[in-house]
Amino acid sequence: MNFSFWSGYKASYFSSLWMTLKLSLVSILFATLLGVLLYFLKTSRLGYKKIRPLSLLASAFIEVMRCVPMLLLMIIVYSGSKIALGFNFTSFQAAVIAIVMNASVYICEVVRAGIEAVDRGQMEAARSLGMSRRKAMWLVVMPQAVKNILPAIGNEFVGVIKNSSMASVIGVAELLFTSKNISGATFLPLEPLLVAAAFYFVLTFTLGRLMLWVERRYKVSDNR
């Protein structure tokens, strides 16, 4: 194997590494916000009655996003924005939108599971003290649910980093896009891709270990 190209292209790799991180960080941030919003839309209530239109809207969005491949969604957002909206998204914007739409439905389920893992007695105790349902949710239930939610969102972030490679299809200069260009320039079909794979491994392995450490810390604090 020939890795002599590295010295001439390492700047390109580190630039594309930053693009991968930026794309993943922006996407997971907005996906988390949208995922939380979807959860509250899906479970929205007026008094004791569920607000059905909002619940149906959130459920429909979740089902559609589960069934549409993210690569196809990315291409639709990038290519169809001019037709649907009258202007073009940049490749970075289109990639962020597609990843956010896809990841948010899984984060919605993470939020649901995290909240449901909190003992129902916590909500009942807060309500018995005179708190409204909304106030009890934000001041009593959510702080406890965050301990369950954060490690799972970290795992979703690992998935987002790997899925960000799909953005190469619409021209985002992330790791896979750059390594394919280097392959074409150096006539080396394998080695530039192996370098990209090494970067992805370091990113995801490090983040996975960090999330495992965070999860263990939460368990230790719960056992005290």
From TrEMBL:
<dbReference type="Pfam" id="PF00528">
    <property type="entry name" value="BPD_transp_1"/>
</dbReference>
<dbReference type="InterPro" id="IPR035906">
    <property type="entry name" value="MetI-like_sf"/>
</dbReference>
<keyword id="KW-0472">Membrane</keyword>
<keyword id="KW-1003">Cell membrane</keyword>
<feature type="domain" description="ABC transmembrane type-1">
    <location>
        <begin position="17"/>
        <end position="211"/>
    </location>
</feature>
<feature type="transmembrane region" description="Helical">
    <location>
        <begin position="92"/>
        <end position="115"/>
    </location>
</feature>
<keyword id="KW-1133">Transmembrane helix</keyword>
<feature type="transmembrane region" description="Helical">
    <location>
        <begin position="136"/>
        <end position="154"/>
    </location>
</feature>
<feature type="transmembrane region" description="Helical">
    <location>
        <begin position="193"/>
        <end position="214"/>
    </location>
</feature>
<feature type="transmembrane region" description="Helical">
    <location>
        <begin position="20"/>
        <end position="41"/>
    </location>
</feature>
<feature type="transmembrane region" description="Helical">
    <location>
        <begin position="53"/>
        <end position="80"/>
    </location>
</feature>
<dbReference type="InterPro" id="IPR043429">
    <property type="entry name" value="ArtM/GltK/GlnP/TcyL/YhdX-like"/>
</dbReference>
<protein>
    <submittedName>
        <fullName>Amino acid ABC transporter membrane protein, PAAT family</fullName>
    </submittedName>
</protein>
<dbReference type="GO" id="GO:0043190">
    <property type="term" value="C:ATP-binding cassette (ABC) transporter complex"/>
</dbReference>
<keyword id="KW-0812">Transmembrane</keyword>
<dbReference type="GO" id="GO:0022857">
    <property type="term" value="F:transmembrane transporter activity"/>
</dbReference>
<keyword id="KW-0029">Amino-acid transport</keyword>
<keyword id="KW-0813">Transport</keyword>
<dbReference type="GO" id="GO:0006865">
    <property type="term" value="P:amino acid transport"/>
</dbReference>
<dbReference type="InterPro" id="IPR000515">
    <property type="entry name" value="MetI-like"/>
</dbReference>
<dbReference type="InterPro" id="IPR010065">
    <property type="entry name" value="AA_ABC_transptr_permease_3TM"/>
</dbReference>
<comment type="similarity">
    <text>Belongs to the binding-protein-dependent transport system permease family. HisMQ subfamily.</text>
</comment>
